[in-house]
Amino acid sequence: MRKIVLLALVGLGAQLVDGSTGMAYGVTSTTLLLAIGTNPAAASATVHLAEIGTCLVSGASHWRFGNVDWSVVAKVGLPGAVGAFAGATFLSSLSTETAAPLMSAILLLLGGYVLARFTFRGLSSEHLGKPLRKRFLAPVGLVGGFVDATGGGGWGPVSTPAILASGRLEPRKTVGSVDTSEVLVAIAASIGFIVGIGSEGVRYTWVLALLAGGIVAAPVAAWLVRHIPPRVLGSLAGGIIVLTNAQTLLKSDFVDASLTTRTAAYVVLGLVWVAAVAYSFSEYRKNRDEEQRIVRQAEPALA
């Protein structure tokens, strides 16, 4: 029962971050399932089954708050579904001994990217409003879907930064559109895993626990996306992902690091994480204060 409650809380927290930043639900949830010894393919299958429900609720909530561009959903979501099915089939064919460190490595890289992206970079608005072309979105979706299925997460970390970096879609619509299109990715990945491994290793009580937590958080996240600093949430989520998967890799047969080496690595990574979150919050406050100063200076001219 304690594990079920923990999974529900993880689902809630992961969806809160995912619905606010457009990434990290799958990466965060899969990381926990791997940490408690779940088979990699089963872990990814469990998370993707739960994501079908959470993404439906999240997408509806984002649509309700005007955060969805449906043309983007179609152009990125359909190629994403193709990539997800291919990735699920590929992961299902690997042995657990090979898949576990491979998935942890992918998650570690994704976590590092999330951490760096939200810590050091802001959001460009230079090309805001320009149309996003299919020839750009289709490859993003294909790669994002494949990484998402093989890594247990990655749709958001691949798709959201790519679309944000284009500067053509405002952040809240980027997050809402990526979250909504993930329904297609989750369905395709789930079908791929069912074809590849059947229901073996998939615990449906865990699926329901993750789903319950995610459903509670989804409407809240869709509302919060306008009111909280995404870079701070992204830094927090990225750090958790990096630390957890670094632990898995350092203990794996491929690395087999000593206790002293592992401890030193955890301390260094922990300090980097704390510094990153502090820097993110500092930069957020600095940018917010600068925007407020510009608004105050402009008010007399408009009066």
TrEMBL record:
Bilayer-spanning residue ranges: 99-120, 178-198, 204-225, 232-250, 262-281
Domain of life the protein comes from: Bacteria
Membrane protein topology class: Multi-pass membrane protein
Record's keyword terms, sorted: Cell membrane, Membrane, Transmembrane, Transmembrane helix
GO cellular component terms listed in the entry, alphabetical order: plasma membrane
Coarse class of the protein's main subcellular location: membrane
Location in or out of the cell: Cell membrane; Membrane
KW rRNA processing (keyword) present: no
Keyword Transmembrane: yes
UniProt-listed InterPro entries: TM_pro_TauE-like, TSUP/Inactive_protease-like
Pfam families: TauE
Sequence similarity: Belongs to the 4-toluene sulfonate uptake permease (TSUP) (TC 2.A.102) family.
Protein name per its UniProtKB record: Probable membrane transporter protein
